[in-house]
Task: structure prediction
Amino acid sequence: NLSARLTDTFKNLRAKGKLSAADVDGTVREIRRALLEADVALEVVKEFTAKVRERALGDEVNRALNPAQQVVQIVNEELVGILGGEQRRLRFAKNPPTVIMLAGLQGAGKTTLAGKLAKWLRDQGHTPLLVACDLQRPNAVTQLKVVGEQAGAAVFAPHPGNTGAGEDATSGDPVRVAKDGIAEARAKQHDFVIVDTAGRLGVDAELMRQAGDIRRAIDPDEVLFVIDAMIGQDAVATARAFQESVDFTGVVLTKLDGDARGGAALSIRSLTGRPILFASTGEGLGDFEPFHPDRMASRILDLGDILTLIEQAQHAFDEEEARKAAEKLASDQFTLDDFLKQMQQLRGAGSIKKMMGMLPGMGKMKDQLENFDEREIVHTEAIIQSMTPAERGNPKILNGSRRLRIAKGSGMTVTDVNSLVSRFEQAAKMMKTVARGGVPQIPGMGPV
Ligand code: GDP
Ligand code: MG
Result:
């Protein structure tokens, strides 16, 4: 993968104080190859590597303390940029209902997404109505009704009529159903309408026409192109076909829980100019989140989903605490008190091993995971609690006699105290790395 490649490349560079043009070219070649292997489209790769090369040869790298690190930083920044920079939020209609139409190939995850969106909106106090416009596939209507029920959202489906075919009749006019659905939403005061549409296995003219017709008939506020992140190089052709015939305002990447590294994401965003709004990460209705370009960049670089990890750790304490901690990190005032709080929160979260699983390099970490001892946290607590507030705030004043007093007070040895202080220093360094967007190590875990 890209990260392993870069690590190898940078290993050679690390010793050098400066990067030569040849070093940069070698690195850029590796990035190029890795991106192509991750199914990023060639034209996107070219543009990307050209940008990285230009910056890597520039002043910011020459002046950097660690040029190799700086190049990684540049690669990361450019990746975030190409993925859309800031996160783009869902657009709301000025006059409700906000109409969201889903389009994409069969099996992309549209119907599942309809349920996920409905649940997500309901959790925020909205009243979405799901509209079943997939009249192609047997059971499609029933499937939507099932996810609607799971999400606690109402579903509007075509009336069965008297053909005897039941409500999953594969006849009927999806454009008509879409319009009726929106009328129903107005009448019953739903503030969101999610229109599920049909897909085929491959791009096909009739399907495209139908999706285009629905779009023109209902003029949605958002048309979300739903695409399976695993489809690789086909992603680009599919996205372009949909853009030409239906056009869309945003993209949803599904099946990110699989092995796909997200090369498709890079290509689609870059070639269609349409932002990625959401990421779908499993079959359950909760496996869904707004898309974060920075997280995707980390994923592509295989840095693990560090931000998610941090977020989970923060679940245990309130937002105010989190904000204060972040401020401290940014201003470099991370103290032993903060360290203790973090330890306690990790323990409070209870699922430390699960969180560890989200970090990269799991192979190496496995043993450490097995050896991780929560008693360590209890010892840490005892030591820090034996310190004075002044000592906690400024560990630099911890001389020999203070350390001895603390050891006695906590029932631990001076060696334990020393080891804690050095782990704290490591953690402080790590927190600074995380604050700058790098790869952290976990307090108490030792280096990865
Ligand atoms: P549609 O044809 O576009 O409506 O696709 P469906 O919503 O019916 O989904 C097709 C299959 O993909 C179903 O088995 C879903 O459970 C599955 N699926 C959808 N989204 C995800 C996802 O994010 N991850 C995984 N692993 N499976 C998904
Ligand atoms: Mg469907």
